[in-house]
Amino acid sequence: MTANTPLLQQLIDALKALPGVGPKTAQRMAFQLLERNREGGRKLGTALLHAMEHIGQCQSCRTFSEQELCAICSDPSRSQSSLLCVVGSSADLQAIEQTGQFDGRYFVLMGQLSPLDGIGPAELGLDRLEQQLAKGDVEEVILATNPTMEGEATAYYIAELCHRQQISVSRLAQGVPVGGELEYLDGSTLSHAFSGRKRF
Amino acid sequence: MTANTPLLQQLIDALKALPGVGPKTAQRMAFQLLERNREGGRKLGTALLHAMEHIGQCQSCRTFSEQELCAICSDPSRSQSSLLCVVGSSADLQAIEQTGQFDGRYFVLMGQLSPLDGIGPAELGLDRLEQQLAKGDVEEVILATNPTMEGEATAYYIAELCHRQQISVSRLAQGVPVGGELEYLDGSTLSHAFSGRKRF
Ligand SMILES: [Zn+2]
Ligand SMILES: [Zn+2]
């Protein structure tokens, strides 16, 4: 029999929504919070409810934001930059910000092209990206999608958009390990890849 | 700069209350919930608040329970058993229940003796255990504390309590790996250790 009470079992089941958390880890997390850190558990519960409810996407770059415009898009020195970096996720944006190497603006795809999963240009907001490019103030688009097959296909598609509007396109330099995921790179690899980017 | 908004940063910080979750993992968890599973994030938030608020301890065996008595202590066929198994935590109780080898009652210490951390007999409810033993209906106490130094010291202390009341004491059989933690054992090792328990 399971000796877990209904509330405890609900908590354990709910913890399995976290990536990399199976039943055993979920149980350990639940017990640890109950035994040693109820205040932390309460704070986490409240933070989750607030975040899930109030965090939307920036109307300009699509990164996560509870404001209409994120901090970067609200900063004129960045939102009027002629450099636009396209990334797959907010986590990738965050990883690039942490290198301190880039002071332009971003466009966050929140995914990558994957026709089999029903993810096409519309799902990645590429119509909105095209409108932004059509304004004519972007001189270079830096493609910083993941160096995976789907990331490359996505980059190729966006490069075509740019070519049609005669906008320069570059891609992060090799140095990014093939098949890896951008958000796990150390900052210095990412810095090198950034400064060594080449024309697409 | 960090590109995380205040709500997002609060969520990431709050996730670090979970055991084994550092800043990088916390960020990944936050993004994954926001991107792909907001419903799961909301459920987890609600489950955490309910659990932290409403889960207390069983008045008899001290395991986690939102009722005054847990399911085992509410079951007469178990709560009147002459076998009482003492465990360090609710997770250990749960691990033993899953072997299906034991149908007696439990006493959950919620810790182990650790004078340097201010954890003495009172903190482990040993006064209450002594009262339960004094009723005279327990014939054997099975000590299933962790096979660590502190677990052994705790077992020794409880064995003394039992000897004073002329109650038999046994300890889980060797087979439990020295220095290991009970809740991570596979069920069959634990079953063997249970059935091969020896007089203390
Ligand atoms: Zn933005
Ligand atoms: Zn109980």
Automatic annotation (TrEMBL), chains A, B:
Protein's UniProt keywords contain Zinc-finger: yes
Gene Ontology biological-process annotations: DNA recombination; DNA repair
InterPro entries: DNA_Rcmb_RecR, Rcmb_RecR, Rcmb_RecR_Znf, TOPRIM_dom, TOPRIM_RecR
Zinc finger (C4-type): 58-73
Superkingdom classification of source: Bacteria
GO terms assigned for molecular function: DNA binding; zinc ion binding
Sequence ranges assigned to domain Toprim in this UniProt record: 82-177
Alphabetical UniProt keywords: DNA damage, DNA recombination, DNA repair, Metal-binding, Zinc, Zinc-finger
Keyword match Phosphoprotein: no
Family: Belongs to the RecR family.
Function summary: May play a role in DNA repair. It seems to be involved in an RecBC-independent recombinational process of DNA repair. It may act with RecF and RecO.
HAMAP family: RecR (MF_00017)
Protein name: Recombination protein RecR
Species this protein is from: Alkalimonas amylolytica
